[in-house]
Amino acid sequence: MKTKLLFFFAWLMLATTGCSADEPRTELPDTPSEEKPEEPVEPSGDKNVLVVYFSHTGNTRTIAGYIHETVKSDLVEIKTVDTYTDDYDTLLEQARKEVASEYCPPLTTKIEDISSYDVFFVGYPIWVETAAPPIRSFLTTHDLAGKTVVPFCTSGTSSAEASYRLVRSLCPQSTVLEGIQIRRGTYDTAYDRVVAWLQKLGIANLNNEKGDEK
User: What angle do CA 20, 154, 92 make, to 5 degrees?
Assistant: First the structure.
């Protein structure tokens, strides 16, 4: 009951401000063991894949893990020089200023062998209706020309469309594929939807026949 009340008050705060500063603080479920592939599948076309993400509360990190567990890939977390606060009001004010000014917070993360990857999954929480500022930093400091970029994000009730437009604008010479958004209240089906999304994109063609054998 306490959890439900806390969730309600968190929702009420977001509704009052009209936007979400970060992914909601609800825990995502662990990957269902009976549905998890025994080994990550090779991406179609023999591509080298990097899953790179920024996460403040852990939800985007979990979705990145689902992708990494499903598709053979490397996994890198985007980290900023200055850590973002956990105080909601302070974070919201900072996020609004950074988004409005198109600020690029300095990162400690640097992918040295960027040219060795063909496909980049780029994950982030929605902050003030768009991708969190560290994503702008990453995409402006790493040349993804000629690469395939696939956005994924977590959010409260905000749309992901502005964030997809931002990714496309920062990757004008990349092929940007259809992204996926995991909203608050849909976490119980997140893993299944991520796998279905990967199959739809043709990046992971999972063979479920073995699991169906009796």
Answer: 25
